[in-house]
Amino acid sequence: MPTYDVVVIGAGLAGLSAACELAESGARTFVAGHGMAATHWAHGGVDVAAPPGVATSREGLEALRLIDGHPYAMLADDVEPAVAAHLRRLDVAALGYRGDLDTPLTAIPTAIGGRRQVAIVPAAQSAAARAWQPDERLLVLGITGFKDFWAPYMAHNLARTWTSGGPAGVEADVVELPDLAAAHNLSPMTLATLFDDPTWRGRAFRALGAVAPRLGAWRVAMPAVLGVSRHADVHAAVQQILGHRVFEVATVPPSVPGLRLFEVLRRRLLERGGQIQIGFPIVSVERRGRMIQALHTEAASRTHRLAADHFILATGGIAGGGIRADPDGRLHESVLGLPVEAPPRAAWFSPDVGPHPLEAAGIRTDASLRPIDVEGAPLLDNVHVIGSTLAGMRYLSERCGDGVALASARRAVLEIGAASAPPVEAEPASISLPAADAPVEASA
Amino acid sequence: MTFRDAATYDHPPFSTDACLKCNVCTTVCPVARVTDAFPGPKYVGPQAQRFRAGNDTLPLHAPDVTVDWCSGCGICTRACPAGVLIAETNNRARAAIVSERGSSLRNRLISDTDLLARVGVPFAPVANLTLTNPIFRTVLERTIGIHRRAPIHPFARRTFADRWQRRTRREANGGSAAPVDPGPDRAVVYFVGCAANAWEPEVAETAVEVLERNGLSVIVAGGQACCGLPFMSNGLYDHARRKARRNIDALVAYARRGYRIVGTSTSCTHALKAEYREMLDIDDPRARAVADATWDIMELLADLFERGRLNTDFGPIDEPLPYHAPCQLRSHGIGTPALDLLRMVPGLSVIDSDHDCCGAAGTYGLKREKWQIAQDVGQPLFDRVRASGAARAACDSETCRWQIEASSGVPTRHPIEILAESYRRFEPTVMTV
């Protein structure tokens, strides 16, 4: 009901982490999501920077910040504190992560038997990044009837392509879990919810024990369905039962690791007095000069008005719906109608995917993340643009999406804190950071 | 319509063209989570829709009947990042199946709430005794398929319409009749709905009390019926359209004169606001006028607050109160006004249930084959309500209240009843101990 300090548009990693930080600082914060966001499509890890040829995220970051017009050119110093704050937030909620900017980038298996470069991953995926012992083999363990994770296919592709630096051998097996023999419609969420149930879980563990590899050194890959609310316990127990290190592999969407991440951030926001509504697409904007006064979201009838002092645009890029193409060959920003920096339409169809010209399309901003026009003049004073909506980043080829999301979220919150200066003591988002591995302090 | 026409995508079956197949809807579906019978919103919606022709030359054949396991909660539509109207598409698909293959006696019976009320209310004492008799309930389950443990709320002994008529007559005789037309600034039109009329008239009377405490007189428009949602949920669109037209006829003149139409059931008000258009294709200016004038009562009170016109003389209620925002309320797109208002009551410690759906979904939880699913969907909510140790809970929709009350054992009230109690406690003259 009330007027908010900040309305965040978009409920992905960028929007939610900005909202958490705002709510933690006491700002009245409202998150309006069109729908569930990219968290549910992604692997749950934190991709900071892995352009081809770098050994660590820090190296990647140093390379990307030199690219003219890249968001890291203005955000590079925000990355490390933003990532640390993010990981601490997850750690408090028992969703542990491993790695930092100096962790060597390692190629870990994907659900279709490809590999992707990672450094900062959920704890349950971290065993995938460990160096392989000479005689250590990989068992890909699927679940009978679960079509989103096809163990023989994944194992076959890995065995075919992973010729050096990997396991001594790759095998596949499937385990039949209790009550699911006749199931037709197993989704990752169904399985993850079952693993949260202590009774079913006990029976599932017995079935898993029966397929545990007995002889030799093994590592086991399982689909990322090992619980939602009891995930850490489930993962630990499965490792114990199988007698080997077990790592989760994010499935094709939907992604349970992404869903866990979303859930932790959502709850954190609510605990700190923030609000979030999903299914709240913006349909109109009240604007006076260079200030947005309120947004209107779609409702069953009429519209729902959200007034605020500041707005954060975190609607994603082309995939997330923040930037849309019309049939006439123009890209437009879907909420505020901001000008989109984009290659000419002919380049949209370039066969070159490393990087693809369209990847860098987005909204151009000044150093404080406010949108600007082609001449560099500010368009709106109380709007900050964050995450994949920003121009100049190549999410796919540079693997920098999560780092940009977190760093730009932090920067936007600092800017808002500075803009709404007077009574707020210090800047709301000033995070004094312990080293990444320091114990989490209970807030006094 | 063409694909260049943006309006195309507001039409539920066409909106499915925007589906990215990301399966987010499947992860949030409370039914798919608990039963293997339902393949999830994506499969029965955007996937199956490609096999449903539905143009002038081909009938709307329904290739897959598993869509009938959809409870209609609408959570998928709100979660969809691409704006696909999944639940609405699925509801229409069920209606196509029903129009091809017919409906069961049970579904026609439980949908016809006005008929049930006409039969049940005059014989309430007997009917209520019968409906709590385990032998009769077993027979009812075996014969027509209403689960023997499904919550059936007792009929009121007198409908709200009846009570209201008496009150009007009394006031006329006492010479204290309200002005016939006090104008849209000082009066609202109350859409009663079947539940508040025949099962819970105390909710309706409490709503009137609260509105009057806020300086609004209440007009109960004649000729109104059940909103038709039970028929819609059971795919009986022709019946639903008859109810819809009757309600639009009863309300449109008021809507056009600027009156606000207020309801106490988030399900009914959502039907008036959106479902006549989205499901039943009733999209004329009269229906639009009614839709635009319709408010949930909590939404209206929150609006009064925003404009500085809410009576905030709330007396203390010192207790914990679990509150469940029903799925139908979420489809309004208005946030959770009840939560905001209840938090103004001094002493009241409101606990947001933070759970998607109670499972009942109108008539879904009554059905023999679906009762267990409805229980499983709502289980975390029932556990949370019980664990709160509260003496009562609150929820805006009737069938949700009945479900929560039956399955958690905690009496569950409409938020308006809690607010009314708070007002009463503020005034020493009316205070009772």
Please outline the helices and strands.
The complex is a heterodimer of chains A (444) and B (433).
Chain A (H helix, E strand, L loop, with lengths): L3 E6 L3 H12 L4 E5 L23 H8 L6 H22 L4 E2 L7 E4 L5 E4 L2 E2 H4 L10 E7 L7 H11 L8 E6 L12 H9 L1 H14 L6 E6 L7 H12 L2 E5 L6 H16 L3 E4 L3 E7 L2 E8 L4 E11 L9 E3 L5 E3 L49 E3 L9 H4 L2 H19 L25
Parallel strand pairs in A: 1-2, 1-14, 2-11, 7-8, 7-9, 9-10, 14-17
Antiparallel strand pairs in A: 3-6, 4-5, 12-13, 13-14, 15-16
Helix pairs in contact in A: 1-9, 1-11, 3-11, 7-8
Chain B lengths: L11 H4 L8 H5 L1 H5 L6 H9 L25 H5 L6 H16 L3 H7 L1 H8 L3 H8 L2 H11 L15 H14 L13 E5 L1 H6 L2 H13 L3 E3 L9 H5 L3 H20 L3 E4 L2 H13 L6 H9 E3 H10 L12 E6 L2 H4 L6 H6 L5 E5 L18 H17 L5 E3 L2 H11 L3 E2 L1 H12 L7
Word description of this protein:
- The complex is a heterodimer of chains A (444) and B (433).
- Chain A has helices at residues 13-24, 57-64, 71-92, 123-126, 151-161, 188-196, 198-211, 231-242, 256-271, 395-398, 401-419, and strands at 4-9, 29-33, 97-98, 106-109, 115-118, 121-122, 137-143, 170-175, 218-223, 245-249, 275-278, 282-288, 291-298, 303-313, 323-325, 331-333, 383-385.
- By secondary structure, chain A is of the alpha/beta class.
- In chain A, strands 1, 2, 11, 12, 13, 14 and 17 form a 7-stranded mixed beta sheet that branches. Chain A has a 4-stranded parallel beta sheet with strand order 8-7-9-10, sandwiched between helices.
- By secondary structure, chain B is of the alpha/beta class.
- Chain B is globular, with a radius of gyration of 22 Å.
- The termini of chain B are far apart.
- The interface between A and B is large, with 37 and 41 residues.
